[in-house]
Amino acid sequence: MESVRKFLDKSTLFAVLILPVFLTHLRGIADGLISYIAICFVIYSFINKQWDWGKQNWVIIAFLWWGWILLCTIPFGLFQYNIMMIQALVLIRFIFFAAALQVWVLTDEKYRRWLSYVLIACAIYIILNMLCQLITGYNILGAPRYFDGTLTGPYHHPRAAGPLARLLLPITLSLSIYCICRLKGWRGNLVALFIILFVTLMMAFAGQRMPFILFVFGIVVSLYWLRPLRTIVLSMLICIPLILGATSFLSPKSYHHLVTLFIHQMAHFSSDNYGLIYTRAMIMGLSNPWTGLGYDAYRHFCANPIYFHGLSFWGIAIGHGDGKGAEICLPHPHNHYIEMFVNAGIPGLILFCYMVFLWWVNLVKGLTSKLLSLKDAVKNSWRVGLFAAVLVHEWPFAAGGSFGNLPLGGWFFLLLGLGLSYSWDYGNHKAALKVYNGIGS
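The line above is the sequence of O-antigen ligase-related domain-containing protein; the predicted structure tokens follow.
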């Protein structure tokens, strides 16, 4: 049995360390690795007869949320769309995966550090591809910019900005704090300002509106704990018009996508595709507000003509005509909270909101704004960045992909599990940590 434990320890650690590489490329393998880690965690818990991790508040709510989605999916999934039921069933792998990182695989500071190096390497790889594309018109792999001018990084489609907006938060914050503490005085502040401005400029060059906004928002939120960065980030915010101006000169198509189209969308939101998608999703959810339409409902039922109409809110007409019919039927409604309302109704939405809130609460355990040693300051800023990444990913007004879709969903749960592994140190879990004495010792 001891040999089985050691195999599970080493193989899952290896799987976690290579996961970012396959989230960057070959997401099918990444999904397999996440499933493998989740299965190994269940086996490991069974062998050790240790299920204390399941008593955590976020785990309990996560299981209730998953169970409710299953119940809401049964009427549709079993008789009409079998794939819906299968997708709802395997959604549990993300909960096990995050818990595995928290209480088992990443309880040792050394392994967290190893994973952070891999994450940094992946972020550098994506940025280098963007820089190459900005300068030469092609990335390292030979792919050109997207047709609308956005930088695609190492991909053929604009997928780089989403992961970068999450990855760069802990990386940028910890590197900036390191420079401030290490160099001291104005030199450290100047280097930190350069780092933040460079990263913000790269996010602007990416030409993706929501990732850029979420990244800046995450940086601002982090200032609650990172006092040395407050003046520097204020300077960065003042420089944002200059950054956007530089984007209009160095990458006009990125500027058009980032600024011009954004202004147009906000001015005509009700008739814009995003507004029509949200309206259609709300119509679908309101048609069955207590149980929703089952997992991934927007993908499967959006094209049903019974939803081709507007709605009225407090006497105000929202949407008109057929709402562009099936033309706006994409795989997801571009907002996790609206997605949960469509999938599982009001109870499912409430459980999802509570689960996300508990993630945030657990992630801020042990964070401080006090002056610390260099090592502790860097660690604290890295953890603040992980919290900010999870916060912006699940910010209620953020637009994004489907909740469980990879690769972005995989990046999210990887960062969530890593952040929870730090917060686990600050809870009353000493006895549990002694039991999970394989990787965590």
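Note on the example: The beta strands are 311-313, 316-318. The CA atoms of residues 170 and 386 lie 5 Å apart.
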